[in-house]
Amino acid sequence: MVNSLKELVIKEIAENIQEYKGNILLDSRSSDQIFSQLLKTPDDQWSTRILTETTIKFHLKHVNLEGSWVCVETVNELQKQFLESFVIGSIQHRLRDEIEKESGNGKIDILFLLKKLFNKTTKKILRHLDIGNKRYFFDNRIFLSDNLTRISQMLPSLQSLGVSNIEFHDDDFSQLCNNFPNLTYLDISETNIKSLDGISKLQKLYILNLRYLKFSAHTDIIELFELKKLQILDVSSRQISIATPTKIILHSKYCSKVLPELTFLDCTETDLNEKSLDYLLQTHENLQRVVVLDCPLPVSKQNDARCLSCTSLDSALDCLSYYLDLHRGYHMKKSLKRIETFLSVSNRSYDLIKCLKLVSQVTMISKVNNVQKFEDAWYSSVYFRAVKCLRSIVLNRMDEIHPVDQSMLAEIFFDHVERFPHNVDNWPGLMKRHSEEMWQLIERLIDSKFCKLNYEKIVRKAVRLLIRHKHEKWTLFHAFSVVEKCLNQGFIDSNDIIDLIKRHQYLFCEVVRQGMENQRNTFVPV
C-alpha cells in the first residue's frame, strides 16, 4: 500500500511551497490536492507568506474547507478561482468572525457568505455545494425561504446540495424542493425536518441522505416513493435511547410502495428486523446492498451477501471503508472496535494490504489535534481505535509489511506518543500501559532490518520529547532509548543531528544519572 509517486510529490510540494521559484501553473487536479494539503496548515502559518508570496498559480475546481483554518487570504484566493464543487464545512476563526460582523446580525447568512466567496464564473458553473455544518448541531446559519430562491437564481447549474445540521423553519424544505428541481443529490441529514412533503418535485434525484431524521407517521414520508429514479438512500440512525427507537422502516412498510431503481440502502441502527429485510429484498429487485450494522437481525441474516455488517473481519473492513468515505466518526469507531477484536484473535488469513491501508487512512483523517484534550478523548476517539488496530497488525504480521509501510507505521506511532499530555508518570495504569506499548512498537520498528525509517526525523522528535518532558522519568527513558538505538546502530551521520544531541547532552546525562533502567516499571511485554 505504498503511496503513489504523485501523492508523495503533492505532499512534498505543499510542505515546501515557498521554496519554488518562477511561475508554475498547475493543472486542476494537482491544484486541488496541493491546496487541500495547504489548508491543513495551522492558522499562524496559513497566512500572507504562503498565499501571496508563492509563485505557484492554482487552477482549482474542487475545494473543501471542512476543518481548515480559513483567513482573508484564503477568501481572496477563492475569489480568483472557477469552482465546480465547494464544501464550506465548519466555518472557523477569522472568516467566521468577519462574516458574523459584516452580516450585521451576529449570524452567518449563507447567501451573504456565498456572494463573498464566489465570482461570477463560479456562480454560473458550480454544480456541487455543501453548506452543511459537520460539527455543531444547529449552527447559527440563516437558511430561510427567501435565501433559497436567491441561491437557486445565483447558482443555476447546481445539481448537488448538502444542508445537513442546518435548522429549517416552516415550509423551508418544500421551498427547497421547489427551487432546486434539477438536484440529483440531496443531503438533509441531522436537520429538524419532520416531513418530506414537497420532495416529489425532485424527480431527477439519484442519491438522498436522511440520516438521523425521525418521522411520526408513514404519511410524513409517503412522497419519498414518488422518486422513481432514486438509487441510493440513507435512512440510518443512532440510537440514543432503546426506549425511543426510530421507526423509519416500519413507516416505509406502511406506505406499501417501492422505489423501483433502489440499489443501495443504509439502515444502520434502525428498526430493520428479519421480516422487514425479507420484505425489502423481495419487493426491490434491484437492491444490491443493505447496511445493517446494529439492526435487530439474527446473525444468519446479517451474513447474507447483500448485507453489510460487522460479523466478520472482511465485512467490518467493508463497513469501515463505507463509513470512512462518509466521514461518519461514530460508526467508524464501532467498526474499528470490531476490527480490533477480530485482529486480536485472527490468524494470517486476512487481506493485510486492505486492512493496513484502510486503518492508516483513518489515523490520517481522525487524529486528535489538540494535545491538551488527549487525556479526555484518547480512549473513545476514532484515532485511538485505529492506532490500536495498527498495533495488532504489527504484532501479528510485521514480517509481511513492506519496509516503506513499516516506516509509515513508525511515524504514526511516534506522532501518537508526541500527542500524549504532560505528567505521564501520574497517569492511570491503563493509559500508562498504552504508552508503554506504543514506545515498544517504535523500538521494534527501529530494530527491524528492513524498515526504511527517516532516522534523523525520529531523533529530532525524540529530542523534542526529551526537552518537553524533561521532568518526567517515564518519557525520558523511552525517548532516550530511541535516540540510543539510532546512534548505536549507526543510522545517524548528520552533523546537524550530532550538534543537536550535544546541545542537549545534559538531558542524556540526567537519564543515566537517575538510573532509569532500574526504575522502569514492568508491564506485560508487547
Description of the structure:
The chain is an alpha/beta fold and 526 residues long. Among the domains are: 194-297; 402-519. The protein is 48% helix and 7% strand. It is built from 24 helices and 14 strands. The protein has helices spanning 5-15, 28-38, 48-51, 72-78, 93-103, 110-117, 120-125, 145-154, 172-179, 248-255, 274-283, 299-302, 313-326, 329-345, 352-366, 374-377, 382-397, 403-418, 429-447, 455-468, 473-488, 495-503, 505-513, 516-519; strands spanning 24-25, 56-57, 62-64, 85-87, 108-109, 128-130, 141-142, 160-162, 185-187, 207-209, 232-234, 264-266, 289-291, 307-308. The strands form 3 sheets. The protein has a 10-stranded parallel β-sheet. It has a two-stranded parallel ribbon with strand order 1-2. Strands 5-7 form a two-stranded parallel ribbon. Strand 13, helix 12 and strand 14 (307-308) form a beta-alpha-beta unit. The radius of gyration is 26 Å and the shape is globular.
- Low-confidence blocks of residues: 368-377, 516-526
How many H/I helical runs?
Answer: 24
Q: Let me know the largest β-sheet.
A: 10 strands, parallel
Strand content: 5-15%
Find the count of extended strands (DSSP E, 2+ residues): 14
| Rough outline | globular
Class derived from helix and strand content: alpha/beta
The gyration radius over C-alpha positions equals: 26 Å
| Mean pLDDT over the full residue set | 80
- Spatial arrangement of strands, main beta sheet: 3-4-6-8-9-10-11-12-13-14
